[in-house]
Each structure stands twice: as structure tokens, then as C-alpha cells.
Amino acid sequence: MTLGACERFVADPGQRVAEAVLEDMRRDSAARWAATWGERHRVAARPGEPGLYLALAPMDGITDAVYRRLLTDQFGGRSGISLCVSEFVRVTRDPVPAAVLLRDVPELAHGGHTRAGVPVYVQLLGGDPEPLAETARRAAELGAPGIDLNFGCPAKTVNNHDGGASLLRAPQRIRAIVARVRDRVPEHIPVTAKVRVGWDSSDGLEEIAVAAASGGAAWLTVHARTRTQLYQPPVRWPDLARARASIPIPVVANGDLRVPEDLSHCAAQSCCHAFMIGRAAMARPDLFAVIRGARQDRPLPLAELADILRDYHAAMRDDGLEPGRAVARVKQWLRLAAQLDARFEPHFHATKTAAAWPPIAEHLAGMADA
């Protein structure tokens, strides 16, 4: 990939980038973004390739194989999604057995792709380089098209056990983990990293970015919040430009990308031209196709979401998920959709106490826009 305005090295790697440099970068970036947006109908397989890169974010307890299949199957397999990342696989003292990897990421038994042919990277979470590297080697051997390393999970239980965002406080450990995994995985398989802008501030973002890049990450995805923010506002898109200025690899922007216009606003502030979308897909499962211009930009009709939820429940039951958990997943989807679109609130409240599928199915049958 040719280096552009946003891939310039700063004089002292890891040091804070001057605001004047960032302003120059953002001006230079505008023309390149216009060209990328003009090619948004092309699905870029990786950041920096021709077209627009739009990844489906990993969300623990949500984006399992059924969800990934459902979203990537949309519109005859033309969902607009470039790549999926699995829910994290927790790695502690010992490497994860192959059977567990196949259970958690069943796409590995099908070439590491969804039924629609979208690649699924295996995300690993942990703090010990050696078992992480061996688990990554096993995943690659099983057919993983890529390995993603989670340094951004804000969950307290994860952070208290040397995982996720807790590593943001020790960038040298991020570098060591990425380097060990990169060394163990075949060269043609990308190793990527996902971080937040920092633990309780973004002051060390450049150092975090340099750590991941110098360890051998192919690209870096940054959720534009600190760990202590969890998912609260504000989203910090401007901070991402500092990561872009610090490293020669692509930086993928993540956080509060809810409508197509958000991508342009984010690109202008962050200098990022590749994106990862997570929670917004709960209210707009068609958002990836809308961004690419393949679907009309309008609120998703309630009846369409009802159809998707029925398909979701049926697919979970077909996959063997027990009835209570399948019902809980449907209600979780409605709850998250309601947080982003008020039209879904009455439907969540009408179903949230249901303990079985029939009353939910009956309610979904009547969902329609006024």
C-alpha cells in the first residue's frame, strides 16, 4: 500500500503528535476520502485495498456464528460486510484445544468463511504470549483466514484477570504478544489488533499504536473510547488521527458509526478510511448495504426486523441452542435496537418479561410501522 498523508511517521515514534501535523493530515485526507466514498460499492477485503472496508465488530454474547451467518446472508449474500471477527476466545495458562476453537468459531470447518463467503477472523483474548501464540497457530492450522488480538474489552471480570483493555496500561506487553503470535502464524495470515484509545485517557495512544505495529500487526482497529468510558459518550474520533500519524499500517475506526453520514464525519476527524460497525447493526442490520448504496437509506421497517428476529430464533434453535437462551437472545437484540431507535422501545417492553417463544412470536407477527 502506498503511504499517504495519514501514514507519515512522527519524528519520535510513540510521542504525542502535534495538532498542527494533524490538521495538515486532515486536509490532505479529504480528497482521498472522497475517492474512497466514490468507490464504496466495492467491498474491500482488507483496509487499504480498493473500495471501502466495513467489518462487523465482535460483541461478546451477541455476534456468534448464527448472528454472523444471518447478517452476511442478507440480500442473497450481498450484505456489504467485508469481514467478520469472532467473539473473543479466552486464552489463559494453556492453549485452547482445537475442539473448542471449532465449537466457538464453527466457520473454521468451512474454510474460515460464513455461508455467504465472508471471512471470519478468530479473535483471541489473554495476557500470556506463549499460549496465545500456540492457540493462534492451531486456529490457523484449522483454517482461520486471520487472527485478531483483543486489547480492548472493558469488562471488569476480563480486566481483573489480565485480559482485554488491562493491557493498554502496558504497551510493551501488547508488542510482545503481537510479535509472538505473528512469529507463530504463517506469513500469509494477517495478525491484527483491536484496542481502545487508552485506559482512562488517550494520552498514551501513540505508544499503544506503535506497540501493535512494531509487533507485526497488519492493521489496528481502535474503539474511540477509553476503557473507563465503557460505552458512554463522547466518542473520540479525533484521537484516532494521532494513531494514524504514528504508524505505517492502516487504522480502522470503531465506535458510534450509526448512519452513513457518520463515516464521513469520522473520516474528517480521524483520517481513517476503514471502519468497523457493531451495535448499530442491531437497529439497522442492513446498514452495511445502505452505506454501499445498495439499499435505500431509511429506517428499517419494523416488519423487516420482525422477520429477521424470527429467522434468528429459528436458526438458533436449529443450531441446538436451548429454548430459554434463544428467547433471551431475541430479547437482547430488541433491547439493544431500542437503545438506538425509539421505535423499537414499545416492542422490547412488550416482550421483555416473556419466558417462552410463543408470546414473542405473536407480538412480532403484529409489528408494523404506523
UniProtKB/TrEMBL annotation:
Record's keyword annotation contains RNA-binding: yes
InterPro entries, per the entry: Aldolase_TIM (IPR013785), DUS-like_FMN-bd (IPR035587), DusC (IPR032886), tRNA_hU_synthase_CS (IPR018517)
Top-rank lineage group of the source organism: Bacteria
Pfam families linked: Dus (PF01207)
Keyword tRNA processing: yes
Gene3D superfamilies: Aldolase class I (3.20.20.70)
PROSITE patterns, per the entry: UPF0034 (PS01136)
Cofactor: FMN
CDD domains: DUS_like_FMN
Domain (DUS-like FMN-binding): residue spans on this chain: 56-345
A GO MF label: flavin adenine dinucleotide binding
Record keywords: Flavoprotein, FMN, NADP, Oxidoreductase, RNA-binding, tRNA processing, tRNA-binding
Protein's UniProt name: tRNA-U20a,U20b-dihydrouridine synthase
Organism: Nannocystis exedens
